[in-house]
Amino acid sequence: MTQRIANNYQYSVHSFSETGPVRTSNEDSTLICYPEENTVFAIVADGIGGRNAGEVASNIACTAAREYITAYYSQRNVLRMLTQMMQHLHQTIQQAAGKNNALEGMGTTATAIFIRQQIAGYAHIGDSRLYHWRNGLLLQCTKDDTLVSQMLKEGLINASEAMDHPKSNVLTQSLGAGEHITPQISTGIPVKIGDRFFLCTDGVYNILQQDELKLLMQIQHTKRLAESVKQICLQRIASDNFSGIIIQVDEIQ
Q1: What single string gives the DSSP state of each residue in 128-152?
Q2: Cβ–Cβ < 8 Å for 145, 169
């Protein structure tokens, strides 16, 4: 467990990243860093691509994000900073792929949160997710960049058909793929004592429905919560890698 103090707030953070019982390698990556005492940054990434390219792409995203945030976290305009960060990650992955034929076509999802002075912002592309839990309510902040989500929005399929659609894993956007990206960026979110933020890859929410996650969020300690999510994914024989980061906001006693 890692804690950082921000005024009268205390951030408790736990993460996990598992290959799972079916896959032979882990293409997920996670990162947590604290550029200064009042600031927390976290990101989850789920790599895509043949051979080991997905693992490389997700690692590049997390490493480049750490370098970018460390250099620019103090910028006042958080919206611009997060937007430019995502474009930087996109270009960095593309440049790496261009130098190595074995990495051609690699990409990754990326969902990140940035908290400074009790104000949060997030950046997102792909189908990893950010959830915000407050006062017993669980909100999915991000929208999945998937073909099925697009079809659902356009009314081509209904919610029931979307649940088990054969193309549920087809992404419409990811870092490293395509010339241009349009990440989801949101800023100015007030952070309150008792809040929890949960970032995860699709390997988690494909196993745990939102109602189940909502119940699990009632577990008092972040370490126990992380371990509970891990154990359920393992018990249900998750077919994919699964990773998550939990950030809890407590008052200093």
Answers
A1: -EEEEEETTEEEE-S---BHHHHHH
A2: no
> Is 45 in contact with 109 (CB distance < 8 Å)?
yes
Q: What are the distances in angstroms from CA 14 to CA 2, 17, 54, 88, 178? A: 7, 11, 24, 27, 33
| Residue closest to 107 by CA, chosen among 44, 56, 51, 148 | 56
Residue where the block lists tokens 């009790």: 118
- The sign of the CA dihedral 39, 11, 4, 59 is negative
Per-residue pLDDT of the chain (253 residues; tens, 9 = 90+): 555 555 677 889 999 999 999 999 999 999 999 998 889 999 999 999 766 799 999 999 999 999 999 999 999 999 999 999 999 999 999 999 999 988 988 999 999 999 998 899 999 999 999 999 999 999 999 999 988 777 777 677 777 766 677 666 789 999 998 889 999 999 999 999 999 999 999 999 999 999 999 999 999 899 999 999 999 999 999 999 999 999 999 887 6
- Six-digit token string for 102: 């074995």
Phi, psi of 16 (to 5 degrees): -150, 150
Task: Indicate yes or no: pTM above 0.85.
Answer: yes
Strand partners, 46: 28
